[in-house]
Design brief:
5-stranded antiparallel beta sheet, Jelly Rolls, 242 residues, disordered N terminus, mainly beta
Amino acid sequence: MTITHDKVATLPDESGKEVNKDEWNAAHVVADDTLVAAKTSFTAPDKIISRSAAGAGAGSEFDCTSAGRALLDDASAAAQRTTLGLGTIATQASDNVSITGGSVTGTTGVVYTLQSLSSSYNPVDGQTVYQGAVGVAPTTTANVYVVPFPLAGTVIRAFLEIGVGGTLGTTETSTVSFRLNNTTDTTITASGAYNAARQQFDSGALSIAVVAGDYFQIKTLHPTWVTNPTGVVHSVSVLVRT
């Protein structure tokens, strides 16, 4: 940026003489508090004057587009949000968001959980049992109680918790599997034990594609115990990524 004035020195050329600085400044220099836009020249359109370096010193030009000017002339943060097209959700904290009305779209990548929780039962040696719906005891008949998938996605993990509310069993173990559409079994654990009041098992990473309307059960193959557990409850959480 350059600052100019409209005064031109017209003194005759007198070789060896200097222009009197005090007289020139008093008559022709633009005072700091009288600088106006007409006295300012920029190198190109859409420029503003600022200083990015530390400390005092000369300013320099920076870009200022029409979008930037639209924000600069707003009198408040609320007015700036309006200029940017942001609604009230823009003022909510990321860990405390409230959505009232409307709908949420584009949910690809969201993880939801489906639960299968049996009621208390007493396992029988060597039986294969199936559980599905919450609060129903396992049955030896497959495909009776099931848990449906409401959305298409991929099963990525299954967590099993075994609780024993009565007699603790001996150390023999059961194989517990995720059973899809009564056809395909995926082992959650082959070490399901009943010799403690509460034990947890993680399937590890899974990648099982499902579509809306598919369903699952939890299939358990019991061993022959020396001492059978009683008051057993199976709780399984199945994680699905859309």
